Amino acid sequence: MLLYLVNPSNPLVSISLNRSSYWNRFRLWKPLGLLVLAGLTSSDWEITILDENLAPIDYEALPRPDVVGITAFTSQAPRAYEIAEGFRARGVPVIMGGIHATMCLEEASARVDSVVTGEAESVWAEVLDDVRAGCLKVRYDGGRATMDQISPARHDLLPDGYAFGSIQTTRGCSLNCSFCSVTEFNGARYRQRPIEAVVEEFKSMPEKRVLFVDDNLIGRLPQHIERAKELFRALAAAGTGKSWIGQTTINFADDEELITLAEKAGCIGLFVGFESVTPEGLPELGKKASMLSGRNIPAAVERIRRHNILVVGSFIIGLDSDRPGVGRLIAEAAGRYGVDNMNVLFLTPLPGTRLWKQLKAEDRIAMGAFPDDWKYYTLNYPVARYKYLSSGQVVREMNDCNGTFYSAANILCRLGRNVLDGRNPLFSLVGNLTSRRNSMLFARVYAALWQSGGQADETESFFGPRPDMVDVWETGSGQLRRLAAALKLQAAWFFRQC
Questions:
Q1: With contact defined as beta carbons under 8 Å apart, do 94 and 4 qualify?
Q2: Do residue 90 and residue 234 come from a single domain?
Q3: Mind listing the pLDDT tens digit of every residue in the chain (498 residues)?
Q4: Would residue 233 count as lying in a domain?
Q5: Are 140 and 125 in contact (CB under 8 A)?
Q6: To pair with 227 at 20 to 30 A between CA atoms, which of 56, 164, 218, 441?
């Protein structure tokens, strides 16, 4: 029997996956959930994984499957429903799972034949048996899997074209941030896969670069951090030569042994959630606030970067404490912190979160024509009514933030800092230039959706005119003369690693 597993695209996200730029491929991750499902599927099924984010798919030209499984984040839901409608019109049953179907069960159930809620490990075999028997139920409740139920993902089922492979070592998060759906979906208990299983899967992956998708790779408690150390030791001992990036909290910087082991294990970059840069904003972050309050963040970032690990800082615009000027505050704070790159998102009330319930009760959902408006819930669009910022103002804050952090002068300064410190500058430079370009594209989209002041060219108004290269050269000529020889050596080292 033939099974299709589909990862839908979102046309609004495609501007940041613009294939005209080679470097945007580094923002495309493998759909790990579908690969895990494939690993749970018995060998008598023929499996095809279809990822619309990799390339357009002509479903009519494909053989008719016996069943289709679709996963979707909230922003993918409209496209997921379109795909489901097409297959159902051909008489093919469609099963939907993932976080959005779990949180919006009634909505999803009206558009597919069956919904799997929660984590699928405990029910997937039953689902496929029922498909074979022709008695598919409308709902299967997966709950939360035990970590020994997690099968290795079928990394062999997708073609080349991904810069990063994906792997998961833990599920659950005890931080329970109001804006995050992880705790609601995966639970507050920090569950850990056996280290041996993780290492074996890591070794089997064809990619040389890997993304750990864990929401917090090292956890929060001492026993969690000790487990992370054991994992890093095991990865280093495996000697794969692979490099990896992950997501963590700033307490990663508190343990020098942990950072050293991560470097030896191949860590080249970490996403670190700061969220707010103001004392007023910290209480809105819940338990994470205690990790940030009173901490010397620049020193913490530098302790990580000393080990040749890039730090990408994550921030939120639109907290109830945010007022006009917050965009520039975030950009300036990110500069002081010394992060290599910055990821700034609009506060987004995702279904199932405490934030969703709060803003729904307060009639502060601005984009609420569902299911179509779910496409805006990418975290890159202002979908709510913010307390002190209108839609036009919050867009201006985002553009001002990006325009400040990704100015030509600031990018040049970060480049110079990396080279002078003897660190590989090219990943950071490429990331900055790509982020600058994408944020300029978003600025144009915002100008079309939220007219805020009537400027003819929103991109120019927030980023300024394109800098004259003579001016850029004069600004950085002193540094550039000192760095020329070092750049040649660094570039040669970088391309040997690739």
A1: no
A2: no
A3: 999 999 999 877 654 344 555 555 556 778 999 999 999 999 999 999 999 988 889 999 999 999 999 999 999 999 999 999 999 999 999 999 999 999 999 999 999 999 999 999 999 999 999 999 999 999 999 999 998 889 899 999 988 778 899 999 999 998 888 899 998 999 989 999 999 999 999 999 999 999 999 999 999 899 999 999 999 999 999 999 999 999 999 999 999 999 999 999 999 999 999 999 998 888 887 767 777 778 899 999 999 999 999 999 999 999 999 999 999 999 999 999 999 999 999 999 999 999 999 999 999 999 999 999 999 999 999 999 999 999 999 999 999 999 999 999 999 999 998 888 887 788 788 889 989 988 998 898 888 887 643 333 433 444 444 333 333 333 433 443 444 344 444 444 443 444
A4: yes
A5: no
A6: 164
Which residue, 199, 198, 258, 248, is CA-closest to 228? 258
Q: How far apart are CA 65 and CA 88, in angstroms?
A: 11
Whose tokens are 């920090």? That residue is 190
Task: Find the helix packing angle between 297-305 and 326-337, rounded to 10°.
Answer: 50
Backbone angles phi and psi of 210, in degrees to 5: -135, 140
Q: How far apart are CA 440 and CA 61, in angstroms?
A: 37
Residues shown for the chain: 498
Whether 105 and 177 share a structural domain:
no
Query: Measuring CA to CA, which residue among 12, 97, 74, 99 is closest to residue 365?
Result: 74
Q: Is 180 helix (H, G, I), strand (E, B) or coil?
A: coil
What is the distance between the alpha carbons of residues 42 and 60, in angstroms, rounded to a whole number? 26
Q: In angstroms, rounded to a whole number, what is the distance separating the alpha carbons of residues 127 and 159?
A: 27
Residue 280, domain member (yes or no)? yes
309 and 175, same structural domain?
A: yes
Residue 231 inside a domain? The answer is yes
| Helices and strands, number each (H, E), in the chain | 18, 14
Give the residue from 428, 424, 434 showing the smallest Cα distance to 402.
Answer: 434
Q: Is the peptide bond before 324 cis (omega within 30 degrees of 0)?
A: no
Cα separation, 5 vs 94, in Å, equals 10
